[in-house]
Amino acid sequence: MSEAKELKTGICKYCGQVQNVTVLGDDPELLNEAATEACTCEGAQKIKRKKAREKKVSEFLSKNFDYPEDEQFIRDAIDVVELWDGGIKAVTVEMDDGWKHKITLKDLDLVISSTKTDKKELKP
Q1: 105/85 Cα distance (integer angstroms)
Q2: I want to staple 15 with a disulfide (CB 3.0 to 4.6 A). Which of 5, 41, 47, 73 is the partner?
Q3: For residues 1 and 4, what is the distance between their CA atoms, to the nearest angstrom?
Q4: Could you give the C-alpha distances from 69 to 61, 99, 117, in angstroms and in order?
Q5: In 39-94, alpha helices (H)
Q6: pTM (whole model) above 0.85
């Protein structure tokens, strides 16, 4: 027999506000995680935005990169931009295959713009 979801209380880990949440079980950690996700405080909202960005980034990377080391390099560049929010406006990564990726944090949204350049040497 499966356990039914019940209305319980948890505590936001950023502001300490008590939230009513509906979850399975009585694990305090799960209750507090659900309360944090339901909370509207600045800390909880920042984490929600970060999780949403991480999901978008993962989808972007899996669609656009063939090699795990390239994915990791771009992830590291994204971490630099997020870590230095306000201090670093953008990071540009130029790959050997002609792709250039610019990673920018604009109005709390991560923007990755990619362009490919075919370089040709013209000799007289």
Answers
A1: 7
A2: 41
A3: 9
A4: 11, 15, 21
A5: 42-64, 68-83
A6: no
The total of other beta-carbon atoms located within 10 Å of residue 30's CB is 15
Alpha-carbon torsion 104, 107, 111, 117, what sign? negative
**Tens place of pLDDT per residue across the chain (124 aa):** 456 678 899 999 999 999 999 988 889 999 999 999 999 999 999 888 888 878 888 888 888 777 778 788 888 888 887 777 667 778 888 888 888 888 887 776 778 888 988 777 777 7
Backbone angles phi, psi at 20, to 5 degrees: -85, 130
Classify residue 81 by burial, with Cβ atoms within 10 Å: 0-12, 13-18, 19+.
Answer: buried
User: 100 with 93: CB under 8 angstroms?
Assistant: yes
Cα atoms found within 13 Å of the Cα of residue 6, Cβ hemisphere only: 8
